[in-house]
Design brief:
eight-stranded mixed β-sheet, alpha/beta, 350 residues, six-stranded mixed β-sheet
Length: 350
């Protein structure tokens, strides 16, 4: 299977129905109040009508049943977008059961991140762009409100389109409040000031369609033989991020080095790297100095490997997408522009 040529996606209109699915872990089953708040906020913020499917709240649903919900959502012409409730760790087992022909026949936006890298990759290979980011359970249902940057990119992905310059919201949290705590419905987690984004490579502007996602999942895609053909990745802006499992800089460097050996880094025009989480829910929070050191080490590991395999690639590290909040939803298969001279990142949501 190879990419059929990525096009644009039609936008939803106010009043349209959108699917809310659990293609990996059914988080709404363990925190239904968060889920219900997410559905209300989604409807209020967009005017869209969220629709649940049989496995959205079903813990332990089989890979076949979850795949059937994905296929059904894409098959239904009244459903104009598909949103994941959260990620997980076994979506790689779901993908073989998705009816790819049905998905390709009615392309529509899909939003998710983390383990949903699997579904993003399937869509890419079918020629269907998507949007990397958005977890109804995390970015919509938790906390006192939807973060401004998340809402802006959510609406751009689903309704408004347009080109947006991604900005640093100035604060970030690795994890929120445990869903078992009622405060999770009304309070953010502990937030701290962000560091300036780091740039490497030539001071030029590059633009390309994006591919990538969570490094831990890309590793699985490679082992399962599901990576895109190198020819399809020529000129991409590579998206890289890490999860709440907190891989250290050495692990991250090995993954990125392997992408270099495969030829992916040489094919890329640019590399966009997310601000990584460095603290874990339920564990003691490292000191501020330790958190800064861990982020810097991961940054340096990525830049070292990209520079080794492709010194002409423009690299930006620290953008808030993936496993961080506030979170920008970014195009996957759509276009991003990295300007190494002006030090700006722009995303096209059309």
């Amino acid at each position: 299977m190879t990419s059929r040529g990525l096009g644009s996606l039609p936008k939803a209109r106010v009043g349209d129905r959108v699917a809310v699915l659990s293609p990996a872990f059914a988080a709404p089953a363990v925190a239904p109040e968060i889920h219900e708040q997410a559905l209300r906020r989604l409807a209020e913020a967009t005017g869209l009508v969220p629709v649940e499917y049989p496995t959205t709240r079903r813990l332990g649903a089989t890979a076949e049943d979850r795949a059937a919900d994905i296929t059904a959502a894409f098959a239904d012409p009244s459903i104009r977008a598909v949103l994941a409730t959260i990620g997980g760790d076994d979506q790689i087992t779901v993908i073989p059961h998705v009816d790819a022909d049905v998905v390709a026949a009615d392309p529509k936006p899909f939003l998710g991140y983390s383990d949903n890298t699997n579904l993003h990759n399937l869509l890419w290979r079918l020629g269907v762009p998507s949007y990397y980011g958005g977890s109804t359970q995390v970015q919509l249902g938790s906390g006192p409100q939807i973060d401004d940057v998340h809402l802006r990119s959510l609406r751009a992905a689903l309704l408004d389109g347009g080109v947006i310059e991604l900005t640093d919201p100035g604060e970030s949290e690795d994890v929120g409040i445990d869903w078992a705590d009622p405060r999770s419905l009304t309070e953010f987690g502990v937030r701290e000031p962000t560091e300036p984004w780091a740039w490497a490579g030539p001071e030029v502007a590059v633009e390309g369609r994006t591919w990538g996602g969570c490094l831990e999942v890309i590793d699985q895609l490679a082992l399962a033989g599901r990576m895109p053909d190198l020819g399809d990745l020529e000129g991409v802006v590579l998206l890289l991020e890490t999860s709440e499992e907190l891989p250290d800089a050495h692990e991250v460097g090995r993954w990125v080095r392997a992408l270099g050996e495969r030829g992916v880094l040489a094919a890329a025009a640019g590399v966009l790297v997310a601000r990584p989480p460095v603290s874990r829910l339920g564990a003691a929070r490292p000191s501020a100095e330790t958190r800064a050191r861990l982020r810097a080490a991961q940054r340096d590991a990525v830049v070292e490997q990209v520079t080794r395999y492709n010194p002409q690639a423009v690299v930006c590290v620290g953008v808030p997408f993936g496993h961080t909040r506030p979170q920008w939803i970014v195009p996957h298969g759509g276009r991003i522009r990295l300007d190494g001279g002006a030090r700006t990142v722009s995303a096209d949501y059309d």
